[in-house]
Design goal:
Largest sheet: 6 strands, antiparallel
Radius of gyration: 24 Å
Structural class: alpha+beta
Shape: globular
Distance between the termini: 10 Å
Helix content: 55-70%
Strand content: 5-15%
Order of helices and strands: HHHHEEEEEHEHHHHHHHHHHEHHEH
């Protein structure tokens, strides 16, 4: 088990490294392809485990580099942006990148003084629109700079910025229209409850924080509850768990179909954020394992999900959200069981969420310190208190959004049922974030230092974890 786990994680890391470097030029891709060919040839001649592992690592690197290189080659928009021309653009909305803007996929880019170009590569613009919507826009095509903000846009996949002067949007079609209807239904149903609770429910369900006041956001950050407002693996688990529970009396195949459908619709509704894609990939792999009757080991699934997500969307390798999500999941898998064992004297309904919280928080502390230079001291207690209300608020909120597509009043009933749970979470966040000691400022250097003991703890926990697993036949 330990050997196979090491192999799958080395391949996942190789995919990530390939994606990180592959966009910089074709030489990386050529190197990876040649190395893979040599490794595969050696593996065929001599099936030595080390040679096979080398071939797999090189193949993973080639996958990441090839995917990143293919995306970077679509750079016609970047070339045209050098002249800052006025352009007419038709295409579709890809997704929202939060504060970075909204990603557009142009079908046709017609700029003054240049021939029209088809499929010029992704561009970014400042607007709010449903993914899947088609558009006709005019504006100035601007090159992305070298500052932190534009570098983040480039890493996300954009090749240029469109400074809009006019835009005409058409409604999304197909499954995107269903997802848009659910989002609009949730917003409409949320209008029937008090504004603070309505904003929090939207944040819990689809990651929309526009309705949450700035002081509340600050309290949630200080109390270590801000992760609740960024849709992640816990939301995917809640959705899949609810679907499986509702369909408990249905045949097994129907439950699987329902799980796949719910997973796909959820990703469309909330958007393909890094942590959502990682969790969705893990959920999909788990459903496949259930369907085929194979044993699905959590760390193998996590590594496979990371590799699949990075290969499908190379820029995501730079996402702090993905890094936090993977670390938190690994902390839950490796550290939470150890904490739970130490809390045997506590009632299990209390010990389990506390152990999960400690495992996830301990794993992400160094990265939070390096990136945000802040550490919440009260996070474990705050998360433990809030945990009891998160699942009901999320399930009722999503159900309200779905039902509101058919009848807004009925959807509002679900939101009113979720209101007390949202009030509890708000109260916990505000109370826990109030003390001056709830959160402390730290240096990035401290975060780097903390990685040393954390790595040692992870190594010990991994050895304990693999020893406790049954051997493969």
């Amino acid at each position: 088990m330990g050997g196979s786990l090491l192999r799958v994680w080395l391949v996942a890391v190789a995919v990530g490294v390939g994606a990180a470097f592959g966009g910089g030029g074709s030489s990386w891709l050529r190197f990876a392809l040649v190395g893979t060919a040599l490794g595969c040839a050696l593996a065929l001649v001599r099936r030595h485990p080390a040679v096979v592992l080398l071939a797999l690592i090189l193949f993973g690197f080639a996958c990441g580099a090839g995917a990143a290189g293919a995306q970077r080659r679509s750079s016609a928009a970047a070339v045209l942006a050098g002249d800052v021309p006025g352009c007419r653009v038709t295409g579709r909305i890809l997704e929202s990148w939060g504060g970075l803007g909204t990603a557009l996929a142009p079908d046709l880019l017609a700029c003054e003084g240049h021939p029209a170009v088809r499929d010029p590569g992704p561009i970014v613009a400042d607007l709010v629109a449903h993914p899947g919507s088609t558009f006709v826009a005019t504006g100035w095509l601007i090159p992305l700079g070298d500052d932190h903000f534009d570098r983040a846009r480039t890493r996300a996949g954009a090749t240029a910025e469109l400074a809009l002067t006019t835009i005409e949007l058409s409604p999304p079609r197909g499954l995107h229209s269903v997802a848009a209807a659910v989002r609009e239904g949730l917003v409409e149903a949320a209008s029937t409850v008090a504004p603070p609770e309505a904003g929090l429910i939207r944040g819990l369900t689809i990651g929309d924080t526009e309705g949450i006041a700035a002081p509340t956001l600050q309290s949630f950050r200080r109390s270590g509850l801000s992760h609740l407002l960024a849709v992640s693996g816990s939301n995917v688990s809640i959705v899949l768990g609810a679907v499986m529970l509702v369909g408990a009396r249905l045949p097994f195949r129907l439950r699987l179909i329902g799980g796949v459908a719910a997973l796909g619709l959820f990703v469309l509704v909330v958007g393909p954020d890094a942590s959502v894609l990682r969790a969705a990939a893990m959920g999909a792999i788990g459903l496949v394992a259930l369907a085929t009757g194979r044993r699905s080991e959590s760390l193998h699934v996590l590594a496979t999900a990371v590799a699949v997500v990075i290969a499908a969307r190379p820029p995501i390798v730079f996402s702090v959200g993905l890094h936090l999500s993977v670390l938190a999941t690994a902390g839950i898998i490796l550290l939470a069981p150890i904490a739970l064992d130490r809390f045997r004297w506590m009632p299990r309904p209390l010990a389990l969420p506390l152990a999960v919280t400690i495992g996830a928080q301990a794993a992400v502390v160094p990265l939070l310190a390096v990136v945000f230079e802040e550490m919440s001291l009260i996070a474990p207690a705050a998360n433990l208190l809030a945990a009891v209300a998160v699942a009901p608020a999320t399930i009722l909120g999503l159900a309200g959004g779905v039902v509101a597509v058919v009848h807004a009043g009925a959807g509002g009933l679900f939101l009113r049922a979720a209101e007390p749970f949202a009030s509890w979470i708000l109260a916990v966040g505000e109370l826990a974030g109030e003390p001056s000691w709830a959160s402390v400022q730290v240096s990035a250097a401290l975060g780097l230092v903390l990685t040393i003991p954390l790595t040692a703890i992870f190594g010990w926990a991994l050895r304990r974890h693999t020893r406790g697993l049954p051997s493969r036949p």
